[in-house]
């Protein structure tokens, strides 16, 4: 081969090599059909279904604390005890007063019956009979008053035990042994967490998409249902929505920050592709499809996104979408397709 032929062959190989090296390696996937839901996502905070304060009904120093924060309790379970010494004394005094009143009633009842017999025989005056009747009435009233005092003293003694107002979990203990509690003072509260509410603030733009009874998903796997929609917006023009969620394993604690979504629409045979294929350029979304080894830039409008998949117009089933390497592409770029299998084999 002469020198001129060698030069031509060398230049030809150079241009072929340059052309091949100008192609960009990418990974693609075929668009397949499947089910996808159009979701409206929101954030919210967990709230107990019910919460109630455990408060003292009597005043006195704390003698015992029977629960700790986080402990599950039943309704009317003892939570703490206030020193009951003076209440026991008060009960005994009330009991003694009640016995005296009852004994006096027995005596006045006999006097009245005796006076009534004598009055019928004209053995005593009307005034004497009236005095016996008045004494009987007074004794009956004294018994009622003594019984009320006794019941109150007994109730106060019982109220030395602070009990759980509802079943649930005891939280926020705020007392110590020896501390003097006042009547009505809270020692903590009990919260019911087997069912919770997720409270979300929804903008005025989206509130019309929510309806009572609508199904939701919390953290992508816990089903919920819209239970309440406030019809009065706050100062930020947001509406409070409460979503009821079953929580038997206490996965959610009170006042946790969570993410959720409601299902606006479901598509059963939609063309789906990986969301990682999407790129944003100056606020416009696009993907690259492949046609005869050439990358085609296509602007898209998302219809639904769920998990790792997207349904967007005008993407159709069977199209080939670039999922890796698209950052190096321009419209009409020549590409070399390397699927994941071949890529792993070259390592």
Describe the structure.
- This protein is an alpha+beta fold and 347 residues long.
- The protein folds into 3 domains: 93 residues, conserved putative lor/sdh protein from methanococcus maripaludis s2 fold, CATH 2.40.420; 86 residues, Elongation Factor Tu (Ef-tu), domain 3 (Beta Barrel), CATH 2.40.30; 76 residues, Orthogonal Bundle (Helix Hairpins), CATH 1.10.287.
- Helices cover 27% and strands 42% of the residues.
- The chain has 4 helices and 20 strands.
- The strands form 4 sheets. A 6-stranded antiparallel β-barrel has the order 2-9-12-11-10-13.
- A hairpin with an 8-residue loop joins strand 11 and strand 12.
- Helix 2 packs antiparallel against helix 3.
- The C terminus is likely disordered.
Helical residue percent? Answer: 25-40%
CATH-level-2 architecture of the largest domain: Beta Barrel
In the CATH scheme, the class of the largest domain would be Mainly Beta
The succession of helices and strands, N to C, reads HEEEEEHHEEEEEEEEEEEEEEEH
Rounded mean pLDDT score: 89
Query: If you consult CATH, what is the topology of the largest domain?
Result: conserved putative lor/sdh protein from methanococcus maripaludis s2 fold
- Share of residues in strands: 35-45%
The helix count comes to: 4
Largest sheet: 6 strands, antiparallel, barrel
- Spans of at least 5 consecutive residues whose pLDDT stays below 50 are 6-21, 341-347
């Amino acid at each position: 081969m002469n020198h001129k032929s060698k030069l031509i062959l060398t230049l030809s190989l150079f241009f072929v090599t340059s052309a091949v090296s100008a192609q960009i390696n990418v990974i693609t996937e075929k668009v397949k059909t499947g089910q996808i839901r159009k979701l409206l996502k929101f954030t919210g905070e967990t709230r107990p279904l019910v919460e109630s304060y455990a408060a003292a009904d009597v005043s006195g120093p704390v003698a015992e604390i029977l629960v700790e924060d986080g402990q599950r309790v039943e309704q009317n379970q003892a939570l703490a005890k206030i020193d009951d010494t003076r209440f026991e004394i008060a009960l005994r005094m009330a009991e003694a007063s009640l016995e005296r009143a009852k004994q006096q009633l027995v005596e006045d009842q006999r006097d009245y019956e005796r006076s009534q017999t004598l009055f019928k025989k004209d053995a005593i005056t009307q005034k004497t009979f009236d005095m016996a009747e008045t004494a009987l009435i007074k004794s009956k009233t004294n018994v009622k008053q003594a019984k009320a005092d006794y019941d109150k003293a007994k109730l106060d003694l019982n109220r030395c035990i602070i009990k759980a107002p509802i079943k649930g979990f005891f939280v926020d203990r705020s007392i110590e042994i020896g501390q003097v509690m006042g009547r009505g003072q809270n020692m903590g509260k009990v919260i019911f967490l087997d069912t919770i509410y997720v409270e979300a603030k929804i903008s005025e733009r989206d509130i019309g998409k929510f309806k009572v009874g609508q199904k939701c998903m919390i953290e992508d796997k816990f089903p919920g249902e819209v239970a309440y929609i406030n019809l009065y917006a706050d100062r930020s023009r947001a509406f409070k929505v409460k979503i009821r969620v079953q929580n038997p394993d206490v996965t959610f604690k009170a006042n946790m920050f969570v993410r959720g979504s409601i299902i606006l629409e479901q598509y059963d045979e939609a063309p789906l592709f990986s969301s990682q294929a999407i790129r944003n350029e100056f606020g416009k979304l696009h993907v690259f499809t492949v046609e005869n080894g050439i990358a085609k830039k296509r602007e898209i409008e998302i219809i639904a996104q769920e998990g790792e998949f997207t349904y967007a117009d005008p993407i159709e089933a069977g199209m080939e979408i670039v999922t890796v390497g698209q950052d190096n592409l321009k419209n009409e770029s020549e590409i070399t397709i390397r699927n994941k299998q071949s890529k792993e084999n070259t390592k």
